[in-house]
Design brief:
The chain is α/β, with parallel strands linked by helices. It has helices at about 20-30, 65-70, 70-90, 110-125, 135, 140-150, 165-180, 195-205, 240-245, 275-290, 305-320, 335, 345-360, and strands at about 5-15, 35, 50, 100-105, 155, 185-190, 235-240, 255-265, 300, 330, 360, 385, 390-395, 400-405. It has a 10-stranded mixed beta sheet with strand order 5-4-6-7-1-8-14-13-9-10, with helices on both faces. It has a two-stranded antiparallel ribbon with strand order 2-3. The chain has a two-stranded antiparallel sheet with strand order 11-12. The longest helix has 17 residues, at about 70-90. It starts with a strand and ends with a strand.
């Protein structure tokens, strides 16, 4: 018998706030966290804007030695996890540490470490490469550092599925609790790829917006969209088996009800034209939760602002929901924070939890002009209404599709 799984803690480091309350208030204010790239000189690049985390000082959260042994993506995850664990009131001294696991994904790991040590290799030779280069660079080290920092000895995962990584991380944590492998999972994603090679690489793919105006750069579903904006940050959720949460008197934000995945099996970067793969992930999540398609009112879309994603995701929603698609409210959190790559699904899942908690569906910032076939309700303005269910979508290079269904908690 599968067990019920609830959300009891939240933590976030984002381009519009370095804690959950600041982030969420910024979302409601339609604050856009995109600006000129500050972490390096992007003058010669075609892309000049990104959604960077601001005013983040790791030494405010950990000692200098610990911070020095972590790359930026790991620092984000450790700090966000600390906020989530504190928010959940989780006392590891009272827990069986082998029943508390960690599922924190990064799609790429540390491009900063790769760039830095490659330069050192070329300039100073192979014997001068940092001995900690590999353990600081590899993508699983976010999960590793979170487990070390907080004494989590249970199942430890790093699911790497490109831009679906954060959703898969939360989904696999959900499954781990459902089927008794853990009682608590610290789950989410983290990424920090606003670097020269990161920006150059995605620009070469013609995936990034080259808009100069930060307010016009990330325009999901808008006719004038021109690509996605690179973002960075982390979002962590504490997932917990329901009876375990109730036994310790935990505050329950929402329930994770369904998880669905599929593959396009089509192309390494482009979604399949009909949207059939993404549609199947959505319907799989709905079926997993036992929720009728017509009972869903809201989708937090992958919504990157690229030509292909927004068109094919719209087709996928229409394919999955049929005539009901026109009744759905659909938004994109990326309109404000850019695309956090491997952390995107986690912050969007966290956003769904907050929307359910407050009965508030946020607007897609900057959305103004409907495109021909992209003709659903993409939330030009926010809605203050009950949100019984929220479906969060993520679609990754390689054809990875993942969806999570979050529901309002009822005992």
């Amino acid at each position: 018998m599968s067990r019920r799984v609830v959300v009891t803690g939240l933590g976030a480091i984002t381009p519009i706030g370095n804690d959950v309350d600041t982030f969420w208030n910024s979302v409601k204010e339609k604050k856009v966290g995109i600006d000129k790239i500050s972490s390096f000189d992007a003058t010669e690049y075609k892309c000049h804007v990104a959604a960077e985390v601001k005013d983040f000082e790791p030494k405010d959260h950990m000692d200098a030695r610990t911070a020095k042994r972590m790359e930026r993506f790991c620092q984000f995850a450790v700090v966000a996890a600390g906020e989530a664990i504190k928010d959940a009131g989780l006392d590891m001294e009272k827990e069986d540490a082998f029943r508390v696991g960690c599922s924190v994904s990064s799609g790429i790991g540390s491009l900063q470490a790769i760039e830095r040590e490659h330069c050192r290799l070329l300039e100073k030779g192979p014997n001068r490469v940092n001995p900690l280069f590999v353990p600081m660079m590899i993508s699983n080290m976010a999960a590793g550092n979170v487990s070390i920092q907080y004494g989590l000895k249970g199942k430890n995962l790093n699911v790497v599925t490109a831009c679906a990584s954060g959703t898969n991380a939360v989904g696999e944590a959900f499954r781990s609790i459902q089927y008794g492998e853990a009682d608590v999972m610290i789950a989410g994603g983290t990424e920090a790829c606003v670097t020269p090679i990161g920006i150059a690489g995605f620009t070469a793919l013609t995936a990034l917006s080259t808009a100069e105006d930060p307010m016009k750069a990330s325009l999901p579903f808008d006719k004038n969209r021109s690509g996605f904006v690179m973002g960075e940050g982390s979002a962590i959720l504490v997932l917990e088996e329901l009876e375990h949460a109730k036994a310790r008197g935990a505050h329950i934000y929402a329930e994770v009800a369904g998880y669905g995945c599929s593959a396009d099996a089509y192309h390494i970067t482009s979604p399949e034209d009909s949207g059939a793969g993404a549609a199947k992930a959505m319907t799989n999540a709905m079926e997993d939760a036992g929720v009728a398609l017509e009972d869903l009112t809201y989708i937090n879309a992958h919504g990157t602002g690229t030509h292909h994603n927004d068109l094919f995701e719209t087709r996928a929603i229409k394919l999955a929901f049929g005539d009901h698609a026109k009744d759905l409210k659909i938004n994109s959190t990326k309109s404000m924070i850019g695309h956090l790559l491997g952390a995107a699904g986690a912050i969007e899942c966290l956003t769904c939890v907050k929307e359910i908690e407050e009965g508030y569906i946020h607007a897609t910032a900057g959305y103004e002009t409907m495109d021909d076939e992209i003709d659903l309700n993409y939330c030009k303005e926010p809605y203050q209404e009950e949100v019984p269910y929220a479906l969060s979508n993520s679609l990754g290079f390689g054809g990875h599709n993942a969806s999570l269904l979050i529901k309002k908690y009822n005992d």
